[in-house]
Write a structure and sequence with these properties.
Largest sheet: 3 strands, parallel
Number of domains: 1
Number of strands: 5
Helix content: 55-70%
Distance between the termini: 47 Å
Order of helices and strands: EHHEHHEHHEE
Structural class: mainly alpha
Strand order of the largest sheet: 1-2-3
Strand content: 5-15%
Radius of gyration: 16 Å
Number of helices: 6
Shape: globular
Length: 132
């Protein structure tokens, strides 16, 4: 198994660099397999969502589709796949940012009844806003 960095995933998803995208395609589509998958960490997934939003100005739906594409990859093993899937569904439904949804999904996975935040802009029902 090989770990995959955000730059590989971004080039694969966006196809915006003729040289690097070609190499990313070769890695993911030809070098990896279900028997020898690429590992996509939670940090990589969170960075992919952030880069797509900040640099590429992707919409929530576009980010959700990119994450769904990663989850569907037979040659990719995603860390905490179920929680990433739940966060992607929340993003599709317009329930806050991907990072917030992932934080809540991972908290629930760890047994948390809710997730505390000072961020009053959070839209997820699992967040409990802490006020002074």
């Amino acid at each position: 198994m090989k770990g995959l960095d955000t730059s590989i995933m971004i080039r694969y998803l966006t196809q915006d660099d003729p040289v690097q995208s070609l190499h990313a395609n070769d890695i993911i589509d030809r070098s990896l397999s279900p028997e020898n998958p690429g590992f996509v960490s939670l940090v990589t997934i969170a960075e992919v969502a952030w880069v797509l939003r900040s640099r590429y100005k992707a919409t929530r739906q576009e980010i959700a589709l990119a994450i769904e594409r990663i989850l569907a990859g037979d040659s990719l093993r995603v860390q905490n796949e179920q929680q990433v899937y739940e966060a992607m569904l929340a993003l599709k439904a317009g329930e806050g940012s991907f990072a917030d949804a992932l934080i809540c999904a991972l908290g629930a996975w760890a047994g948390c009844s809710s997730t505390l935040t000072f961020d009053s802009t959070s839209h997820l029902g699992q967040f409990e806003i802490v006020k002074f």
